[in-house]
Amino acid sequence: MRNLLITQREAAPASSTEVPDLPLTATAWDPATDSLICTFGPSESEAVIELKRLRKQGQFDNITSFDVPCEIPTLAFDRVLSLHYFGDSSSICIVFAGGNIVVVEVDEDFQSKGVEIVGSVDEGITAAAWSPDEEVLAITTSLSTFLLMTRNFESIATTTFTAADLSASNHVSVGWGKKETQFKGKRAHAMRDPTVPEKVDEGVLSPEDDQSVRISWRGDGAFLTISKVDDEKRRLLRVYTREGVLDSVSEPVDGLEGPLSWRPSGNLISTIQRFSDRRDVIFFERNGLRHGEFSISIPQNSVGTQKINQLAWNADSSVLAISLTDRVQFWTMGNYHYYLKEEIIYNHKGVTIAAAVVEWHPEKALKFAITLPDEVLSYEFVWTVHRGTTNVPNDLGLVGVIDGANLKITPIRNANVPPPMALYDIALESTPIDLAMSSSGNLIAVLRHTSVDIIQWYPGKPRTAKKPQLTSNVARFELEDNVRQIEFVSPTRIAVLSDTQDSCVLKYFDVDAVSSTEAGEDVLPVDTTNIIPDGSGASGELYYVEAYRRVHSINGKGDVFEFPVPCHWVEVILIGDKENYFGLSDSGRLYANSTLIASNCTSFIVTESHLIYTTTQHLLKFVHLHTGEKGYEIPADDPTGDERCRSIERGGKIIHVMPTTFSLTYQVLPRGNLETIFPRALVVAGVRRSIEAKDYKTAFLACRSQRVDLNILHDHAPEQFLANIPLVIDQLKKIEYIDLFLSQLREEDVSKTMYRETLPQTDGASVIPAAPSAPAGSLPADSKVNRICKGFLDALFPSRLSKNLQNIVTAHVCKSPPDHDAALQLIGKLREENMDLAEQAIIHVCFLADPNRLYNNALGLYDLDLTLMVAQQSQKDPREYLPFLQGLEELEIVRRKFSIDDHLGRHAKALASLVELVIRGEGGDGDVIFEEELKAYVEKHELYREALEGFKYKPDQQRIIMHMYAEYLDEHSRFKEAGLAYESINLLSPAVESYRRAGMWEHSLSCATLIPLPSPDLQNLANNLIDVLSQEKDYLACAQIHQQYRNDIPSAVRSLCKGSHFVEAMRLCGLYSPPTTPTTTTTSTPQDLLTEIVDPGLVDAFGTLVELFSDCRAQVKAQMGRLRELREKKELDPLSYFEGIGQGAGGGPDGIDIPDNISVAATDATTSAGTFLTRYTGKTGGTAGTSATRRTSKNKKREDRKRARGKKGTIYEEEYLVNSMQRLVERIESVKPETGRLVEGMVRRGMRERAGAVQGGMVEMVGILRGGVEEVFSDKSAVNLFLYGTGAEEGEEGAEGAGGGVLAGKKVPVVEDFQTLALL
């Protein structure tokens, strides 16, 4: 689908200076400067050669000249067979037919430093060619010998051509690609053997063969082929290796001629076969077998006189140049079809046959030079797609493909015809140079060498479109005008660009379908490469590009824009009132104005809304074009999360885009097949435009055909949609369309998720407001789905009930949650008015929802007739539901409701019916019902709260239910609530027991005193509570009970001392008064209590703390030492540490001895596959899913137990030590208040030394812990271990090894200061 476009043409007259009239005989490229090295002469009259350099500006510089005498008698004068420039050594090598090999050294200014004959072949040279890597020179001599020489002209191999070479290949052809091998039907039984051709070629020599020898190298320089006539009977192709070993010879072909070129990619060897009525380019494989052909396009009146002088493939194997007598043709291949893309005719100056030589640039694939005797023509092509506009509604996808004198036209939107076929084939008089298509698409201008043709076409619908009509020669030129490009300025005016010697001329023509009129001209700079129209078609402006870089307006409007780098493909589009320039360089750098969009672009196209381009990563990307000041937002390489990026086939390049149908067509190269896709960005953009225009039907159909979530119809403009629901219904019309939309509704806002708007909003832009999101915890009725369904119900019911009943039912069922009851109630009402509609509705609702569920819903409405209708649409057995329904029909209404609710499991509603029966007394004896049925029902279904609510105005029944509830709570160990329930109905004795069992001593003793309990029972209760509280170490509560309920102050003081509440203990001692009874024999005073109880309590607490401090110091010393040892090992030898940790003396995991003759399978715990950190981090080379699957619950529990033990030598030891430090800090922090109270008590009781020892021990412990914490947690890996556990990567939250994320409630421990007494 691509054509060749001429962007540069330079003509340089060539003539010798020192010796007049020497012809130009050879050229060679200097890739570094894009200059040509040229040789003039020798000729028959002058045995002199001049060496010149043609600069890029078209000027010749003399290099040197020297005599070239010819010592071969058979040659009238010497000839240049090979001219090659070596850029790395600044030397020029010339190989002459007379046998001399000359090297000319040049300096930086290309001035000769000397001429040297480095070698000579006495018998003469017939052909010579350098390998592509410039390291090997291949030469054939007139004595049928073949020489290979190095860059230093040392011999590699010498071979003689002999008849024995024919045995190098035993050719067997099975007829691949021949029509004889194609299937012709099941009756073609007599099909002959395809391996036996109808005619066997014998290699008959062409009568026009020039007897020349040709050499061509493969692109990688590993092989070369030689075309030579053997014994003047047969022309043969020989393939040799780089070392001079014969690899194969060609099969015999009649009429084979000399031109030869090996495609650089290496798959085909091209040569010529002559027939009486045509000339074919035929191809050979390296093994010498034929591999296809195509016929050269030659005018019928010159078939006999045309001679093919040369074949030449370009550097990237994409174009084959064929030099004929009066022209050069350029052929390309796609989908196994060869296209003639361009012709350059040069015979208008009377050039001789042997003069035209094509020299391709070795690095720039589409740059070449044509050498004529007195002129050098330099051309440069670019690949281009001749396509129509992308503007709606004329975006027909019109594409024109040049194939010689046959123009292939295809409107892709109407007919996606794969190449090499086309919808229309239009025969022209000659091969076109360029095409242009009008903005409306009904006119196509075809530029040929001497004229302009107009093709008129009225697209219409595919079946009614008429075939294009051709009008030839509406404008004429001369060959000397050198026209090369054409464009439409307006629908009725074209512009033609032509080259002159020192400028470019742009001629205008006003055209219609049959004629043209000249309308002036403009003179442009000589280095003008392209003319391009305004892509938007809004301004009718025409632009020209100078030297691939500077873009000018023809009318001189606006400033000259210059790209940062030369861009071979340029488009200009008007966005708002601002011109935007887009350019793509040959290196893949895509620019939007001066902004680099991508550095790996392969093709691009611009529409009214998007810049679309492909990348070397085989991605198709969209960049929004907008009028705001914000820059271009370039999508990331993520085809899954962004609508602006999607994957395409490898090598795809854009052909056309059609926004009307949301489609884009690209061509997969190098195969050449077309792919039409519907990118999500185009589809969603079109849907958004339709929604904003309130064209909901178009938007709906686009979503339906392109599988776009229909929620976008609402989510893109929620308020607009809700306000225009009647319009939506009128536009969609079809009931199934409305049903489809309603059934697709869900709460997700797709305009913010999968179809997030990626177009940046400009300041002041009109934005359709979105509906406010529902607040957290809102009712389902306020959800998006319910709002839409309610809107449709309001619009459809009751005005459109008969027509849109199905939609009304769907709206009810599609609510969230589904409102089946409302739909069934509607059907129930319809049953009374129109039975046919009701039956239709029942069928539809049973289709939308589960009939079994609907059966329960209908039953729950207590409508037995409706329930029967639903049951008939389900798969239920009538023997099951009919007796059941008949039994319900016989019951009284309230009892029927109770039975239905109980059957449906709606026990709360069933209880309400039962309560109603009890209150009304309609179930017989009310007391009996209450005691038996209701009580049993409440107990069975645990409906105590519902029963309490039902009897809220019946205190007696409510008291009974509360008593039942209290017993239920007591049985289920909910003692607190049971006690409250008992106390609420004044049952204090069970309340006392419930409170006691709940540990609520205040409530229990309070109820006990209200009963009141006898003193012995009260004392027993107090003692029981004291025992429980003592186990819980709630010594303050024990002291209160001793003091208030047992009047035992000494016991209260002992409890307070156990809890280190010495201040309160001393206070109670002061309140103590000894009992005065006749039986009392001793008298205790408050001072005695202090001495006998408080002081021993202080000593005991002192001993406990001193022991704690000693244990903590020993633990810190031992664990810190081990931690230092582990870290030292890890720092000195990390590999040994991470691999060896966890292996005991036996060498096995966890120190298990493993015999030498047993192999242990690698597991997560025994290997470190991947990196040496794998075992330590718990990460393996597999995926996260694989690792998670491998970890069973049992394995995880086992690992948790190992982690908790922290066994020495395991991978969890360091984590255990770090966590141990944290636990020790927490322990010391917890005893600081107790320590403070102990120090104060000791000071008050005169134990100053012991108080100082305790305080000093705590201060020392704080210092030790603070230093330990600083040392332990200064290592980042230790913090990571502490926060995430073993098995997590550093800083990795959610690590599996630690159970996921930061371990619950973990923070790096902080050691607070201990408040000391200044007295100590």
Structure characterization notes:
- With 1320 residues, this protein is α+β, with helices and mostly antiparallel strands.
- Helix content is 32%, strand content 25%.
- It contains 33 helices and 55 strands.
- The chain has a four-stranded antiparallel sheet, with no helix packed on it.
- A hairpin with a 3-residue loop joins strand 49 and strand 50.
- The longest helix has 47 residues, at 1086-1132.
Give a quick precis of the structure.
The protein has 1320 residues and is α+β, with helices and mostly antiparallel strands. It contains 33 helices and 55 strands. It starts with a strand and ends in a 36-residue tail after the last helix.
Indicate the topology.
Elements: E1 3-13, E2 24-30, E3 35-40, E4 48-54, E5 60-67, E6 80-86, E7 91-96, E8 100-106, E9 112-120, E10 125-130, E11 136-141, E12 145-150, E13 155-160, E14 214-217, E15 223-230, E16 234-241, E17 246-249, E18 256-262, E19 269-274, E20 279-284, E21 290-295, E22 310-313, E23 320-323, E24 327-334, E25 337-345, E26 357-360, E27 367-372, E28 375-384, E29 386-387, E30 398-403, E31 406-411, E32 424-427, E33 434-437, E34 443-447, E35 451-456, E36 469-476, E37 483-490, E38 493-499, E39 504-511, E40 516-524, E41 528-533, E42 542-546, E43 550-553, E44 561-562, E45 569-575, E46 578-584, E47 590-592, E48 595-598, E49 601-606, E50 610-615, E51 619-624, E52 645-647, E53 652-658, E54 663-668, E55 673-677, H1 680-692, H2 696-706, H3 712-715, H4 718-723, H5 725-732, H6 735-743, H7 784-796, H8 805-813, H9 820-833, H10 835-848, H11 851-860, H12 864-873, H13 878-889, H14 893-904, H15 907-920, H16 926-941, H17 944-950, H18 955-971, H19 975-984, H20 988-998, H21 1001-1010, H22 1015-1031, H23 1035-1044, H24 1049-1058, H25 1062-1071, ...
